Amino acid sequence: MKLLQCYIDRIITTALEEDINYIDAASDNLITPDMKSEAYYIAKDTGVVCGIEIAKRVFELVGGDVDFRILLGDGTKVNKGDIIAEMSGSTLTLLKGERTALNILQHMSGIATATNKCAELVKGTRAAVTDTRKTLPGLRALQKYAVTVGGGKNHRYNLSDAAMLKDNHIDAYGGITAAVSALREKIGHTVKIEVEVRNLDELREALDTKVEIIMLDNMSCEDMRKAVEITDGRALLEASGNVTAENIRSVAETGVDIISLGALTHSVKCFDISMKIKK
Prior knowledge:
Strand order of the largest sheet: 6-11-10-9-8-7
Structural class: alpha/beta
Distance between the termini: 38 Å
Radius of gyration: 23 Å
Number of strands: 12
Number of helices: 11
Helix content: 40-55%
Mean pLDDT: 95
Shape: elongated
């Protein structure tokens, strides 16, 4: 997965303008332009690195004149105390870019770490771990990239990718069959339809419409196992709602094809990384 450089640069520029405004009151009045320093990133926990190239780009945009050497790239599993990257060059650049680079790197590494934990927990089952659209505004592509680095897969990027009928669509239109039928008359041949169901009766109705994907919303593991039996391969089944690291293995063992977790992006804990300037 390769993100567009212009997209990355817009995010970084917005973050830098928010953080620095027009001067860095401490660094610009304390550090002279000719001062040089050496620094490094150190992992403070065990996890998966993600976003290191973006962190490097922060220093290029904030001032440049820094040699940034990546020692452990995206997707690398690290332990507490591992050195992830080393930097040398302009002290001003290092200080001005420190927080913005770390904010991005820690957030993306947190997502990759959480995703990797879930992906490891479902190994040996048919289930794929995916994200959702519950992302932070403006950061969706970065967050979804981090999910792939952690070993997960991506759900829809946006509302244009697929026609997904959630409970509110269905309730507003008047039922699954009517909504799917009306939708099929208007969408193009490349657009897949996914329907959210809340019980096994709705599952049977959705199967009769021959949609490609069915989301099992907040169902018990017992009901999901029954759903797998009833479906018998006629549609992909996605488990969603109240899935955690503690119960994800049980969900996967029901036989569902996909397990989507909004928590991977909307409430993930940042991975602890520090930047240290050598004295």
